[in-house]
Amino acid sequence: MSVAEPCDTASDSITIRRPDDWHLHLRDGAILKAVLPYTAAQFARAVIMPNLAPPVTTAAAAAAYRDRILAARPPGSDFQPLMTCYLTDATAADDIEKGRAEGIWIAAKLYPAGATTNAHHGVTDIAGLAPVLERMEKIGMPLLVHGEATDPAVDVFDRESVFLERSLLPLLARHPGLKVVVEHITTAEAADLVRAHAPRVAATITPHHLMINRTALFQGGLRPHLYCLPVAKRERHRLALRKAATSGDGCFFIGTDSAPHVRGAKESACGCAGVFVGATALQSYAQVFDEEGALDRFEAFASLNGARFYGLPPNGGTVVLERRAGKPGAAVAIGDEEVVIFRGDETLPWSIGGGRS
Ligand code: DOR
Ligand code: ZN
Fold first, then answer.
1. Nearest to 339 by CA among 282, 254, 284, 278
2. pLDDT per residue as tens digits for the range 74-109
3. Ligand 2 centre and the CA of 1: distance in Å?
4. b/e per residue, 199-229, with b = 16+ CB within 10 A?
5. 13-352 has which CATH code?
6. Atom of ligand 1 nearest to the CA of 228
7. Contact call for residues 126 and 112 (beta carbons, < 8 A)
8. Distance, CA 48 to ligand 2 centroid (Å)?
């Protein structure tokens, strides 16, 4: 007769402080209302990307957007949006400092012009941004970087590594005290660069870049819902990102880059970049940490490292992740349209349990 193994409760659930999402697209209007409850159920705070149309380039626009986000929260939610300024060639250092002093901005976002969704008002001359970056350096305000070269001659799979060499390393050398987050890193080279410049440089890592490589985009046919920018890279890069995320190193933290687009905009002759991962982010991260035997380091990545980088206290309260199969649901309805949820039609091995706020 065999004796049943006792249940290993320690690894069947994990309780962590409430986490934060340090890179999130919430959009506006009906999409905002539809997707915000998912993020608010998973995260206490989130850094909100400013790439609306038109972009959020002024403190007044950011304050109004923050109010719309707060008004769209589900009843009882204490979710806090942390606002960012969309940098353009015309951004003035004084306006950045004023918005920071007024408690409106947590950071400013650098989109190289044309790099991604609603980035056409972005920066065409990064060196020309020096007065703004010097001021940010002086006041301790982080710069968040979409790290992709926009030269059309550069192969799409090389855009991140080329940006690091041509633009980011010179920027870091010109501004030795500037705090920088390299957003949604996708390559081993980016992880190495961040480690080499920590602690003033950090990186966010998405759930999808930990779970898919570029081959997945073409598995059995074109998979538009897995297309985002920077695009997923080769398997060796995915493995390097998993190593970085699960290392416990303080320079790596959650940034889901959840970026909802309605199905029609994704399944199109010219489909938009972005993966809606807001509903399945924590379940996916927990699965990755479990697979890597690193659940003991999950709280650092999810709830501590980012807060420390931004100089904010960790959240009170907890969230429980359970090794319990769950089906999140395939899509979120938005009027007559819908947004497809990353892995939403799969049975996920980890689910969100209870917790305290
Ligand atoms: O895939 C992406 N989608 N990457 C970005 O940088 C922007 C985002 C969006 O806003 O849709
Ligand atoms: Zn983004």
1. 278
2. 999 999 999 999 999 999 999 999 999 999 999 999
3. 55
4. ebbbbbbbbbbbbbbbeebeeeeeebbbbbb
5. 3.20.20.140
6. 1
7. yes
8. 9
